[in-house]
Amino acid sequence: MVGCAGDLAKFRTCEGSWARDALRQSGAEEGGVPTSVSSYSPRCRPRFHRQGGGVTRNSRTPHPPPTNIWAVTPKILIQVRPQVHEELRHWTARARKIVSPDLREQALASISAKAFHCEGGGIYSLLAGDRSRDVVRFIVAYQTISDYLDNLCDRGTSLDPDDFRMLHASMRDALTPGSGAGSGARSGDYYRYRDDQDDAGYLAALVTTCQEVLAVLPAYEAIAPYLHELVDHYCSLQVYKHVRPEERVPLLQAWFDDQGDSLPPMAWYEFAACSGSTLGIFFLVAQACQEDCTPSLARRIRDAYFPWVQGLHILLDYLIDQDEDRRCGDLNFCSYYPDDREMVARLSHFYRQANLSISALPYAQFHRLITKGLLGIYCSDQKVHAQKDVRMAARHLAPLGGSVGVFFYLACWLYRRMAVSDPQSAAGHSSHLR
Asked: Rounded to two decimals, what is the model's pTM?
């Protein structure tokens, strides 16, 4: 407690100025969305969830999500986080049964080091009413696929694009009930281009779990086209960013050029960042729990989250990882901005456009909590304080979230530092979300 108090005193000295500025500015921010920008110019079926290894069916009762920090915080701590960790324990036990030592190592590492991803994504379950438990089940399984494949691609020796495409075919199959593993295919089919293939059905089980949840959503057909669009973007990015280093940028630039006029004005590296988030998929799945989710609403969700919210998410992630990626020789999209000033202007633009784009969505205030939370989560990360340029950028970006952003900043700042005293907790609380 003494160390924590000392840290807090240090925080008040070093960070108090921008926090006070943000609180003074919060009145305008809370009341509306800034309009200035940067110069760039199945029928309904009952729900189910796992309970004692079986399936239960429940009535459907709509519940509005929390729309302020005082309502959402206890929901996260009391409801979302325990449910997420229950699912993670299930998948950890399953991963320990993987036969291949290398696959088992990467599966377990991806869960232990990236649990925070599932916790963050799990917040979208609050949009699902009494189907929230099923949405948590989907989010944890889907995010676990993403993190597992990321480990296999990042930490392996393969540079084969066919290998990466085949692995990530599991992510599209997971969004398509009856395909891939759901049609009886083996996990080994996803490892076709790898020597290690015996995962004891681990990847196929993750895929099947996602399919089971989607198969009973009232509005799956309404969201399916947009799920597939978003996952196709995600999988393409994962292929292009993991091939031979000299091929990455040309492939990413050509991919961006192929988009034509379908995007607002942005650079190729910004489009790539927008493609690297799973938040839009989580939102669509949660919204499809409601019987009144229409194709029109699903399209509005896609338009709001892609590119703006997803872009904000991943650009902030790359912002704080610049030093680490530089040391490891990894691709970092923020490094392609001509200077720090332009980078801050563009991230500010993404934040404002994200808030503007979500203003027409149901429960817009809930989604503003997400965008403000992203600022607080990333700007409070310990990586920020070790990088002078990133620290200065964070001092400009963090106040954009107003008083809510300050709350998330403080909460995440303290949470991480208290987690350091608990190695098991700290291992799962990296903010690396891509």
From this structure: 0.83
